[in-house]
């Protein structure tokens, strides 16, 4: 009797242990809270691999065959799906699904495939939850466009660069790229100096949160010179109240874009010139869509521009462009990424051979660049160009370095020997010189080299201040502002280096030269 009781207890003990779901052990380890900047992509990849393993677990009950030979003829080996890696997890976090022709795990990525994926992203609205990963994926795909085919191992290594890296979202919050976790609130996003900004943070730019402070990264994901932008802190109370359920909704810039528009149709057409340059260039590149846009209601225009600019920034990292005439024999045969918009407003990217001499808006927010071709006759459909405030003439400048000349030609689309004069051609005629004039905007170019004139805190270095060169920049700005005062003509200074752009912006603002927009436009 006693022996039978012991056997019954042993059987119950064995049965109870076998009934415990093994998945509970894994769940225990998955409940860790996300650490800011943690490699969330790896965690996503591991989760998917585990779930696939459960789905593919073979049945414990073997199939019975009347004829043994049928068992051998119908035997199917276990499904072997490639294990998901960090790059695949990042693609999924950005909103790319299996049907979107994601690269097979383990395979390299070619420029043609990268362009195809960029095209998918451009056509797909981005949610708050997808935005950080979307910006990172766009960055990596543009790297492939610029440098050529990349192995899978290298792609996975490049994902690791985004550890502890965050971006500003259109809702004014900072969020980590890999985990997607919202970190803290910055402020309302507004269009300022050629970019969408919230405080010192810019939409489409990466920021490192290592060391407890956010610092801006350049196009090589290296920290730029300068002080910290903000401490890393937790806005848990605000975020829990304001973002509940918002991560699955389309995120746009309707509030910031709405400030471009007024209640009258005529004023809206004038505001068209003040919108982000990439949006203006895209709409103008499609006469069919431009005609449709002109007769949209105010609400429809705001919604259309909001969607367009949000998707462009999420994919290309910027909404600013520079207009130039394509030159050089290489461009006659080389295929370049061309961005366009259909009559229905759908964005598209294709690699085409562009002939020399075509006017194009160059869109570049880091590695790689896309161009937006300008179609002949577009201005005529808008009622013809406005009367220009000045005219082209000799620049009267000599002795510039090769890189300074190249950058000015990049910004102006004209020869370095040409300049745009307002109030008379030449200084002896009382004219004020600009480097260019395009789409109703007066342009000034400050090429590579200005960054070394400023300290890390953005103030002019002592020797630069003592030489009077810092004051010369202020005087030039005030002179240009005074020449077009009251005429409603915007002025843009394009600066090749980010540190120099921030420093010159601070210098001009501290000397009451706020009317000039300072835009960081990297040299090509």
From TrEMBL:
Domain of life: Bacteria
Organism, scientific name: Myxococcus stipitatus (strain DSM 14675 / JCM 12634 / Mx s8)
Keywords linked to the UniProt accession: Signal
Spans annotated as Disordered: 29-81, 379-404
Keyword Cell membrane: no
Biased composition (Acidic residues): 47-57
Tox-REase-5 domain residues: 405-497
Protein name: Tox-REase-5 domain-containing protein
Signal sequence annotation: 1-22
């Amino acid at each position: 009797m006693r022996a039978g009781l012991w056997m019954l207890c042993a059987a119950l003990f064995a049965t109870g242990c076998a009934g415990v779901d093994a998945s509970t052990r894994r769940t225990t380890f998955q409940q860790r809270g996300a650490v800011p900047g943690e490699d969330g992509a790896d965690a996503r990849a591991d989760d998917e691999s585990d779930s696939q393993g459960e789905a593919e677990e073979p049945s414990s009950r073997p199939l019975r065959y009347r004829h043994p030979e049928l068992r051998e003829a119908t035997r199917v080996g276990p499904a072997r799906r490639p294990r998901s890696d960090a790059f695949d997890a990042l693609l999924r976090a950005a909103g790319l699904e299996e049907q979107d022709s994601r690269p097979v795990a383990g395979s390299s990525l070619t420029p043609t495939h990268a362009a195809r994926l960029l095209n998918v992203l451009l056509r797909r609205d981005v949610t708050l939850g997808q935005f950080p990963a979307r910006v990172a994926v766009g960055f990596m795909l543009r790297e492939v466009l610029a440098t050529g085919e990349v192995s899978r191992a290298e792609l996975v290594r490049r994902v690791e660069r985004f550890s502890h890296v965050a971006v500003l979202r259109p809702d004014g919050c900072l969020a980590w790229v890999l985990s997607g976790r919202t970190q803290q609130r910055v402020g309302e996003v507004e269009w300022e100096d050629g970019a969408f900004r919230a405080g010192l943070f810019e939409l489409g730019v990466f920021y490192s949160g290592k060391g407890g402070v956010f610092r801006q990264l350049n196009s090589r994901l290296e920290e730029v010179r300068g002080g910290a932008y903000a401490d890393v802190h937790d806005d848990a109370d605000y975020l829990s109240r304001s973002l509940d359920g918002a991560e699955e909704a389309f995120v746009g810039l309707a509030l910031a874009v709405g400030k471009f528009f007024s209640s009258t149709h005529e004023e809206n057409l004038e505001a068209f010139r003040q919108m982000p340059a990439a949006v203006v260039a895209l709409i103008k590149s499609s006469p069919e869509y431009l005609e449709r846009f002109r007769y949209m209601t105010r609400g429809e225009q705001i919604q259309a521009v909001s969607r367009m600019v949000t998707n462009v920034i999420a994919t290309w990292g910027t909404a600013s462009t520079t207009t130039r005439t394509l030159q050089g024999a290489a461009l006659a045969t080389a295929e370049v990424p061309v961005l366009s918009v259909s009559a229905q407003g759908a964005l598209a990217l294709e690699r085409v051979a562009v002939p020399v001499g075509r006017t194009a808006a160059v869109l570049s927010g880091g590695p790689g660049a896309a161009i937006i071709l300008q179609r002949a006759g577009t201005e005529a459909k808008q009622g013809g160009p406005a009367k220009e405030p000045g005219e082209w003439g000799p620049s009267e400048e000599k002795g510039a370095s090769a890189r300074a000349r190249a950058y000015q030609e990049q910004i102006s689309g004209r020869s370095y020997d040409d300049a745009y004069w307002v109030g008379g051609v030449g200084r002896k005629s009382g004219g004020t010189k600009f480097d260019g004039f395009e789409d109703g905007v007066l342009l000034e170019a400050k090429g590579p080299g200005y960054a070394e004139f400023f300290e890390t805190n953005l103030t002019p270095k002592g020797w630069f201040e003592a030489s009077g060169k810092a004051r010369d920049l202020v005087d030039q700005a005030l002179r240009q502002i005074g020449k077009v005062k009251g005429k409603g003509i915007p002025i843009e200074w394009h600066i090749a280096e980010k540190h120099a752009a921030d420093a010159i912006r601070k210098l001009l603002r501290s000397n009451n030269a706020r009317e000039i927009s300072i835009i960081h436009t990297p040299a090509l």
